[in-house]
Amino acid sequence: MSSIALAKTLQNVQVLPVLTVTNPDQAVQLCQALYKGGINAVEITLRTAAGLESLAVVKRELPEVVVAAGTVCNAEQVAAVKEAGVDFGVSPASTPALLHAINEAELPFIPGVATPSEAMYAAECGFNHLKLFPATAVGGLKLLKSIAAPLPELGFCPTGGLNQDNFLEFLNLPNVYCVGGSWMVNSADLNAGNWQAITDAAQKVTDAIAQQ
Ligand SMILES: O=C[C@H](O)COP(=O)(O)O
Ligand SMILES: CC(=O)C(=O)O
After folding, report:
1. 11, 85, 97, 167 from 78: Cα distances, Å
2. How many domains does the chain divide into?
3. Which residues, given as ranges, of the chain have pLDDT below 70?
4. Does some domain include residue 52?
5. CA of residue 20 to ligand 1 center, whole Å
């Protein structure tokens, strides 16, 4: 059930910016700036104290944005982000306890994997949209190309080490449904509230996809 809902949610999502925010107001402005540049989905991580509240506020104030919770690592966080109303969750890695908690909660979810064995285990637990993390460090394009034939039912969102110069190569692989990363949000612009610069960087990403 969750995997069908997830496939539908991801239909028009090609890029998933990984965001670390310091307060909900900043999160809303950041997501708005990205949306103006054509990026319609975000992953707000639980890496800061403001992460959880920011998820709920962005979900409420920007209904046009697909909102994912990132760095969801345990059952408590699964319950909390479900309560916050996110569209789906994302983890950097997968443990049996985490995958069990996600299935119990029926939360649409993209578990992180770094090896074919982890991918097969996640698939056995019912997950076929996976995140390859940290993508370039664990083999990147070569790994994704190598596992396409033996694991044809699995799709990946490579994250970790992607940038403006390499993201299209990842996105164009047949077993990649979207790409993730932090490259399109410059932290100096974020800290300065330079929203136009963030919109411009997002637009560069969406233009690159449109122009290929
Ligand atoms: O912590 C890593 C982020 O999730 C994504 O990696 P990145 O900063 O290399 O894009
Ligand atoms: C690695 C990542 O994007 C996450 O923390 O979920």
Report:
1. 23, 11, 11, 29
2. 1
3. 1-2
4. yes
5. 10
